[in-house]
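Notebook entry, structure prediction.
Reason for the run: the old model in the group folder had no record of what sequence produced it. Starting over properly, with the input documented here first.
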Amino acid sequence: MNENKGIYDARSLGTSKMMILGIQHMFAMFGATVLVPTLTGLSVSATLLFAGLGTLLFHFLTKKMVPAFLGSSFAFIGGYQAIAPMIADGDGTLTANTQLLPYACFGVALAGLLYVVLSALFKVFGTKKVMRFFPPIVTGPIIICIGLTLSSSAITSCRANWFIALVAIGIVVGCNIWGRGMIKIIPILLGVVGSYAVAALCHMAGMNTMDPVKLQELANAPWIGLPFAYENTLFGLFSRPDLDRGLLLTSAVTIMPLALATMVEHIGDMCAISSTCERNYLENPGFHRTLLGDGLATSLASLFGAPANTTYGENTGVLALSKVYDPRVIRIAACLAIVFSFSPKFAALVGAMPTATMGGVSMVLYGMISAVGVRNVVENQVNFSNSRNVIIAALIMVLAIGVNYSGPVSFQVGTATISLSGLAVSAIVGIALNAILPGQDYEFGTDSQGDTSVNFKV
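New structure, fully documented this time:
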């Protein structure tokens, strides 16, 4: 009997409940997904469209087995800003540099192709050999740090209005602990809707809990519109008579190395999803398929001027809370994202959501990600009496958190400046130390309870 008591076939819940679960996953990814185009100047609607299409492509390539949603990647924000920095107006307002953004998208498209290379290595050499470089003593602390490094953004959002944030947290926790039936399965969606409603009522009572500018944008937004413009795509870029080939090279050199960090994060995310769902997705459908899906989704999005895609920890948190692991639910969320990408009105509606609402919900979800990392380490019985393991875990966590708060590690390659996030630095150091230090005793596939911190019941 499966102790996890998860639901692996959501059709048993009925069509209407599956739709509600899909809406919950869409709301879970929405805040972070639209934040990336907000920070870089890319199209929000194009972002939604290719998050949905990228997710469907990922599911197709992974044999419809892995319940992962692909949203906007934060890892490439530094690359976008390096190639296409936002332009400051006279009053200090920042606007997108639409002329240079396609050049940055070119570098991201090439970075996505690096996933294909690593996918081929997994296919040729096998998961067992490649995974020796990614044992639980490396992936566990990285998963922990994924949640912890995201936590600062959740706290910052909560500070916008702690009362509204606490309402969201209270609804999520209450529904998950004391809820019954469908209430227990959709705590995130109820937290978002409930907190949003309370904020709206408070705003109408004169408490100023919502942004009036965003409310005006909501009122003015059209119901239907195209998600992207041709001139902002790579096709439009290469049809320009003044194409700057030097800037294309600079973009490639600057942005492609960032894929190293995102590929390691992908491996951590797959371990987290496998751990959450108690399924060995690392071997079936395999890393070669998940990496291929993630990389091609990123390249596809970049071709049309949308941000890079990545497997989303927020949705892994939803899986852990709802215990509904059917990939069909994720595909429903993807289809909804595609449909709503053609509605600027919907994008404005979600954009008008109080910052504190997403902060409260995110606080729970990011904590769930870190908890999965702890589980990864504990259930793999990582030996912390071994100094080797202590050193690797210590440096991964200190570098990930320390660099995240002190600023990225930057260095020059020719005329280009390359910046690595805390997760990128910690992942590189952790992988290198694991390969160099003697005493590694991990071998993928030999421990029935190990590898992804789960009991594989497939």
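Summary: Residues 448-458 have pLDDT under 50 and may be disordered.
The old model has been moved to the deprecated folder.
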